[in-house]
Amino acid sequence: MEHAVTEQALVFATAALTAVYVLSADGDELRLAETAGGPRALYGLPTSYPLTGRSPVADAFRTGRPQWSTSEKLAAYGENAPRALPADMSLGALPLGADGRRLGCLVVVYPGDGFDAEQRNFLELYADQIAAQLKAGTPAHAAGGGAADRGGPLSVLRSALDHLHVGSFTLVLNTGRIDADAQLLELVDITPDAFDGRVETLLAHTVPEDLPALMSIVEPGQLTLGGRDLEFRIRRPTGELRWLRLCCRIQGDAVGTPERLLGLVADASYLRPTADEVSRVQRLSAALANAMTVRDVSLVVTAALHEPLGADRVALAELEGDRLVVTALDPPERAAWPGMWRSEWRSEWPDVPLRALPTLEAALHEGRISLLRSGGGLEPGLADMGAGGLAVLPLPAQGRVVGVCLVGWEKPHAFCPEERSLLTATAGLVGQALMRAHAYDAEHELATMLQRSLLPRRLPELPGGVAVARYLPAMSGLEVGGDWYDVIPLPNGHVALVIGDVQGHSAGAATIMGQIRTAIRAYAVEGHPPDVVVCHANRLLVGMETELFATCTYVELDMEEGDAWFVRAGHLPPLLRHPDGSTEEVEVEGGPPLGVLADAEYAMTAVGLAPGTVLTLLTDGLVESASLPLDDGLLRVRGALSDADPSDAGRLADLLLGDLSRRDDDVALLLLRYDGMKVRPTRAGWAVWRLPDAVMHARRFTGRTLRSWAVSKEADRVLLVVSELVTNALVHTQGPVRLDLTLAGDRLRVAVSDSSPRAPAKPVLVDWESTGGRGLLLVEAMSTTWGSVPVSGGKQVWSEVVVAHRPDGTDGANGTGGTDGAG
To answer: Which PROSITE patterns match (predicted)?
Structure first.
């Protein structure tokens, strides 16, 4: 009975034939040592395979990797393929090796189109056990002769099954008698003395829920020749459940009537993860769930595999076309990696072409995990990664391979079943996490680009102060929010600062934010006072018919005098840090958020700032969260303001942000350190009356002013600009006209304001016969820069000229060179 059962030794893998080939004494060929199953001649297996030839068996031996061949793949080998293998059969060749030595190959013939994952897994474990028996010097594998020729016991195959805890039995269908070996009885926890040869004795240990499936195998009317396999559970005397797997074949008599059932029962715990293995996978899954970016995923994977598996190297790479883009290496030091990897080190990590790693390229093409032992004949780029063993884990996601994880060991490493299960589970989890992280990174990039386009790219340089801003997006959801800030230079040394927050985190909130920011900037530039600017923005948002609302704080600051006017619409109060280090919340009478009431009124609060004062505007994401009450958050910011050195405004802003690595809301922060102007601008103004000689009076006023400011060298240029701008205002507009002169440093600004909102336009073409249209061309030629801005229902056309002057009344020229402005 023992010999008969051994002949069906690989029923568990539903194999038709199994053979062991070992290396000959001269090392030139692989010779047949043992077979089990059907007649060898039926499947065309030769007695030897030359190593110099090309065949699945020789390829498996040379590469150290299993070769799984369907009938189509076998046809590609031509005459080196098994000559009599039927078209519907598959062949597996598994290398046998131990401690870096190549001992032979296990060949399995399977009736079907390819081997599934469970069959491959079992056969690889089976090959490991056969290799261990060969290394131990089992007599049956003496080179030059095989069990098939000698008729001796199949000790290598049988002994390997014993080590895998595989038991066998034969059931006579007519009598119900069953012959079971000691391994089977051990698996079901029955002592040999207690077994009476009855099926019922074995079934008594089976979990009741699994009995119907077992009984269906031998139900009358269901008996058909061929194989069946299933998994079932037994309950051990200790109460513990054990998973077993049954594989059986029904054999018939001479006329084909079912006569007996041959079966194997194996411990299937290697197919079922252990509690420790489940906890590892659960921890990995939980960690990957919190990994947002590709870099986060990479760090989680290296931490999950390096220490628990005792690996020496772990690499994670994404697949982009025909290249591997490495995202993580552990250890990160360049010297720890093979020379080929170091040569491809472009920036932070190497960028490796797949064509340089054919073994890896083949594994990715197959999309199946490969566990490569030492001495497998790998190319240097992989062999140097794991001299003792290398795990190649293709990372599948959405039906394709998105990357690969490589785990290498320096010392010889045996891959136990638990590791195989862990690595398989890891590959699936990491592949999905990488796809999710890629989507997140793309979304993050889109959100960042959108946010960057809606917020100021840079803040303007201010006379008498320094403004800095910080923005951090939320860490959950769409990372584009409604927080915004702006710094708006205004005429006459004024500047407007605004910070706000539109409700929600969405593209809609970002859209509203962009519209409100643009509207507030337009209203401010037009010259409206702060309360009017906020009222206009409120009516605009109400008119948009959106369900979203916005809060904001608007400040207009006179940089010369330090006077500030605050308006608050449902937003947090501004904070001030005084020069002595004390802080306070500015008591600003607030109004409702924008977009709530169309007729809402917003009061202004005036506050004087001393030089050295730091004005802080912020949004609630900085001072409030699920674990931080608003009042506590404001106190924290005030404490940081008081303790910090305001001389470096950028560093001060970073200190106020603190540790915000995890945040549920976006954060905006706007700081202005008011220093006061060291050199204040000098101003003079003139109301231009609509009289025939109005331009003459404007020139006279300008000439007197320039002489008093000790500006003579550029006086003619300035007078020409004044003449043209005043003339254009009088000729093309109605209502009052005003001329303003401002001297700030070496810049003289001429500004002419009128009540027409229509901006001046340069003529496209001026010919010799034209009587007008040259004024703006002259202004452009005489000015360093010029332009037009809307102000209070009208406009202001301005020109700046670089001048040289001395406060003592001379400019270094001969004489004063003054002009009386009489025209």
So the answer is: PAC
